[in-house]
Specification:
Largest sheet: none
Number of strands: 0
Structural class: mainly alpha
Number of helices: 3
Distance between the termini: 11 Å
Order of helices and strands: HHH
Helix content: over 70%
Shape: elongated
Length: about 90
């Protein structure tokens, strides 16, 4: 029972991290008002989550740069989080 709960927590945290990163990509590409408190909060959380992968992709088009630099960590969080959760569930 304890491993199932831990697996659920890891799975959920990975989903939340990916959701913040995906939401920031969406807000950026839709040109949301970056002075807005909500948009600023989402951007701050996404920056912290993607700090380790900052500027892996450097390109001229700003929208593509933001997409790839935030989508990569989102995919990694999902893959590692869901993989770890699945492994724990098998124990």
């Amino acid at each position: 029972m304890g491993t199932e709960r831990l697996a659920l927590i890891i799975h959920s945290l990975a989903d939340i991290a990916a959701a913040f990163l995906g939401l920031w990509i969406l807000l950026y590409l839709l040109e949301a008002n970056q002075v807005n408190v909500f948009v600023d909060f989402v951007h701050g959380v996404a920056d912290r989550l993607a700090d380790w992968s900052e500027d892996i992709f450097v390109m001229d088009t700003e929208g593509l740069r933001v997409f790839f630099n935030y989508a990569l960590p989102a995919l990694i969080y999902l893959g590692v989080g869901h993989g770890a959760a699945a492994w724990l569930r098998r124990l």
